[in-house]
Write a structure and sequence with these properties.
Keywords: Acyltransferase, Repeat, Transferase. The chain is an alpha/beta fold. Helix content is 18%, strand content 26%.
Length: 254
């Protein structure tokens, strides 16, 4: 036999669910970090309209972390300067993040020595950038007890770093570079390149003389003409829908 439905219990559950969601949205808004509302964090620089989403990941060494303006830092993003909290790292910033940078959820930026992210870089979720690597020179000593190696990392402006990519110590990534999802990058990457794999290698590159090689398989997107109004865009969308409907309603020839 079907069980009787408890309407009152269902109503209470829906009400409680809405209350929990509303409370969590309030916590997220209130817990986010910005220049106007930095909370306990004292970053070396925190630019205008930059926001760190709540909940944050591990954050320490803030006086040596400089974030530019109009940055978006997703939830659970780790930002650290130095090997551990409460160190004196000197007068210069260690982790520099330019203007307009987007860091995807769960990404890690570990700057034990200088890490520089150029302006307008976009990171997918769970990107890992580190300036430190473990040493394993001594075969008789546990790797975790051997002193690590540190090398500066630099990512040029305008790059797109795909989901799950790993940027290793010493990496020098040029301007407007695409790093494929899951790639492991070390060494120098030239401007206007696409790299993929582990270790990452250049799979496509643009130069003024040859353009993209190998050639792109898809046509470039057509930019919206300057001065186009929202009303005109909506009218074009309606025309496209009508065209699709008319094509779908046509009777195939016998």
């Amino acid at each position: 036999m079907p069980k009787p439905k408890n309407t009152f219990s269902s109503w209470r559950r829906r009400l409680a669910q809405r209350a929990v969601h509303a409370a969590w949205a309030w916590v997220q808004r209130t817990g986010s970090v910005s220049a106007e509302h930095p909370g306990r964090f004292r970053f070396g620089a925190l630019g205008e309209a930059t926001r760190l989403a709540f909940p944050l990941g591990t954050v320490f060494g803030e006086p040596w972390i400089h974030l530019g303006s109009h940055c978006i830092v997703g939830e659970q993003v780790t930002l650290t300067a130095g090997l551990m909290p409460d160190l004196d790292l000197g007068p210069d910033p260690i982790l520099r993040i330019g203007d307009g940078v987007v860091l995807g959820r769960g990404s890690h930026l570990i700057a034990d020595t200088t890490v520089t992210i150029g302006s307008d870089c976009y990171f997918g979720p769970y990107v890992y950038v580190t300036s430190t690597n473990h040493s394993y020179d001594d075969p008789h000593e546990p790797i975790g007890r051997q002193w690590p190696r540190m090398e500066p990392v630099e990512i040029g402006p305008g790059c797109w770093i795909g989901t799950g990519a790993v940027i290793l110590p010493g990496a020098r990534i040029g301007r407007n570079v695409v790093v494929a999802a899951g790639a492991v990058v070390r060494g120098t990457v030239p401007d206007h390149a696409v790299v993929a794999g582990a270790p990452a290698r250049v799979v496509r590159r643009w130069t003024p003389e040859t353009g993209w090689q190998p050639p792109l398989r898809t046509p470039p997107p057509v930019p919206i003409p300057a001065g186009t109004t929202p009303e005109q865009l909506r009218a074009l969308a309606e025309l496209d829908e009508e065209d699709v409907t008319q094509k779908g309603s046509r009777t195939p020839p016998e």
